[in-house]
Write the structure tokens for this entry.
Amino acid sequence: MKERCRPLSNPNIVSIFEQLFTMDLPQHGYRASAKPRARAGPHTGDPLLFADTSSAAPPMNNQGYYTPGYSIGGAPVGGPADAGVNNLFADPMASAAMMYGSSLANQGKEIVNKEISRYVSVNKLKYFFAVDSKYVMKKLLLLVFPYTHQDWEVRYHRDTPLTPRHDVNADDLYIPSMAFITYILLAGMALGIQKRFSPEVLGLCASTALVWVVIEVLVMLLCLYILSVHSDLSIFDLFAYSGYKYVGMIFTVLGGLLFGSDGYFVALTWSSCALMFFIVRSLKMKILSSLSHDSMGAGATAKPRLRLYITVATAAFQPIIIYWLTSHLVR
Amino acid sequence: MAFTLYSLIQAVILCVNAVAVLHEERFLSKIGWGVDQSIGGFGDEPGIKVQLMNLVRSVRTVMRGTTEKSIPFINIKHRSACI
């Protein structure tokens, strides 16, 4: 016990390390309980601030083994409950300030989580990112060549849709977001090849593409509300279906870069047809099939036509926007 | 035509403002879109016109509530020579 209570004599960082490693290490029981703590330790001092301070103080004592380059006077220890274990803080005010700072950071983190979960349901968002590689491969193949796929129905499991991991027809937000970023990078590369690149263009390209998707989603929401289509399309579903066009855009830009202007138009035609087919088949299931539940006979004759118009208009909008957003990249 | 997020926000605010300034008595009732003309048809499928009228009325209610609580002064700068 006496060895562990020995205070550091030389405040130099290197010598702190030496003295640490000559000190008596705690028992294995401590190490086992502190393993998750130790894993986060070596990177920076940040895990200390954003770590779970609600756990017991003893695991924090092992932070003393890492000195992440703070000021020489105080290697962060996190305010051990029993001051006798690692007396690295020469200055008690610094340890008190450290504890205060970490509690403030935790409060801030909780507030941010609460505010975010007020606007965006995080659980619903997690459903859209529950993907694996097999799903991504199959979905990308489906977006490029959807003509041989037979069954477009989204499978359910006790009233909740299956996650994308288990059902290839479910929509996800992983592919659209990755495709968006890839599209931005590809646009930068295409412009760089033509020596028209500047950093502002990247931001402009990104915001233009994003704004068009937001506009499309808003218009779709408006149309679905006005025609009182009671489908289970949430706003994330609409973002997903609108975001799938980024895959078509990437394919088009690649075709234009590799094979010149002819390749651009061939790739544009191919991806437009594939995307139109995909959108019509997918949305038909969601929008048009909701008729079967609540059709009242004579009064519902006008509705199927309007719903069909929405689906076809959405599909027809895709080639236009793909052309609009990619033509300036491939001259 | 390059959009920025700012121009999108501008467009949305202007559109919502345009819907909010439609006057109930002077204009909407004249063209048959007043609030008293939307009642009826209690079937499960309200028509397009009824839905639109409901939308206009709810936008006006929300905007009126917002301006009565606090008077937001939205200063939209006139941007010439946009990108």
Notes: The radius of gyration of chain A is 29 Å. Chain A has a mean pLDDT of 77. The interface with chain B takes residues 204, 207-208, 210-212, 214-215, 218, 225-228, 294, 296, 299-300, 303, 324 of chain A (CB under 8 Å). The longest strand of chain A covers residues 156-157.
